[in-house]
Amino acid sequence: MYYSKGRVTRQAHVDVPDGLFEEEYARDGFFGRVSHLYRDQPPVAWSAIEGELRPEALHLADLPGLKAGDYLEGRTVFLANADIQIGMSRLASAMPYYFRNADADECLFVHRGEGRLETDFGPLNYETGDYLVIPRGTVYRFVPAAETELLTIESSGEISIPDRGPLGPHALFDLNVITVPSPDPDSLERDRPWDLKIKRLGRLTTVTYPFNPITTVGWRGDLTVWQLNIRDIRPVMSERYHLPPTAHITFKLKNAVICTFLPRSLENGDPGAMKVPFYHSNIDFDEVLFYHEGDFFSRAGIAPGMATFHPQGIHHGPHPKAIAAAKAKRETNEKAVMIDTRYPLELTAAGKAVRWLDYWKSWSE
């Protein structure tokens, strides 16, 4: 059943009538039943919010405990639910121990820095813009060549690559651009005792070996560490239609997805096509956006290293200044990581400590 009532546009995101604001009201992210509401006031033009439910912006560089010291002690989670923990980590020197996460798969995004990652499968040289996907149970250690800052995503389920459907298996990125490690036992410091710290049920156990715990000399199979740099991701684009964020999915997790937003051409092929994200209220998903680099044209007041959190049930969309600015823009110049979660996230105490308290007012500025 499909209905059309009142003053609407003929096609979503195109030729929205002057003076109206389009809201996408949809189930199951952007894949379920949907209606578009055309309002004569933007749904974010509020004058007050009382209560916990509100859009949030976080100054992650100021997270308490985030310092270039011990890798595990400095890992600071700012949002979490039963499926996923999202945090930051900073380290400047080689880890004096190895680590195994028995609780979660990890996706570590290198916000800045470079160095070497030693793993059960072999070493990798990492750099800014890398995704490092580490399966649950893998032993690893960071050896930074420059101070390294990571966006850390821990998933209770396996991290995988989405089906690209009719776009074909080479869309977004060819699997051939994923780098996997090769054993190099001679590159490891082997002739001394090493501690291996294992995280299980959120608690750490230290196991000591009289040798380096990475003893691999070969491996075969389809489960391993992945390295993917965002420069090798080629965004899907449309000259005449604003694609939903899920067109930019990089990885699938249990009840969550990770998307990568990169510089791309805007919708320049039709003057009536919407260029900025449409208003929506995240009926079935929470949305987290980590700003890595560039000019974030859909938001004012956001700088690299910050994150925004838009929970289910309250609207968000483009900043009013961004709507006006987008009319003259031909392309974006932003790099960002988005995490959408099926079930609600909660701010940790560390996350609450770095909130931009008046962020909810920014749509009226």
List the total number of helices.
2
The CATH class of the largest domain is Mainly Beta
CATH fold-level assignment of the largest domain: Jelly Rolls
The number of distinct β-strands equals: 20
State the separation between the terminal residues, measured CA to CA: 40 Å
Q: What is the domain tally? A: 2
Mean pLDDT: 91
The CATH architecture category of the largest domain equals Sandwich
* Fraction in beta strands: 35-45%
Helix proportion of residues, in percent?
Answer: under 10%
Q: Which class of secondary structure composition applies to the elements?
A: mainly beta
Gross morphology is: elongated
Low-confidence stretches: none
Largest sheet: 11 strands, mixed
CATH superfamily label of the largest domain: Jelly Rolls
Main attributes?
single chain, 365 residues, mainly beta, Jelly Rolls, 2 domains, eleven-stranded mixed sheet, six-stranded antiparallel sheet, 2 helices, 3% helix
Structure, explained:
This protein is mainly beta. The protein has 2 domains: 21-42 and 52-57 and 238-357, Jelly Rolls; 66-230, Sandwich (Jelly Rolls). It has helices at 320-326, 349-353, and strands at 21-26, 34-39, 56-59, 76-80, 84-91, 98-101, 105-119, 122-126, 130-134, 139-155, 194-200, 203-209, 226-229, 249-253, 256-261, 279-280, 286-295, 306-310, 333-341, 346-347. The strands form 3 sheets. Strands 4, 5, 6, 7, 8, 9, 10, 11, 12, 13 and 20 form an 11-stranded mixed β-sheet that branches. The chain has a 6-stranded antiparallel β-sheet with strand order 3-18-17-19-15-14, with no helix packed on it. Strands 2-1-16 form a 3-stranded mixed β-sheet, with no helix packed on it. Strand 11 and strand 12 form a beta hairpin. The two termini are 40 Å apart. The model has no long low-confidence stretch (mean pLDDT 91).
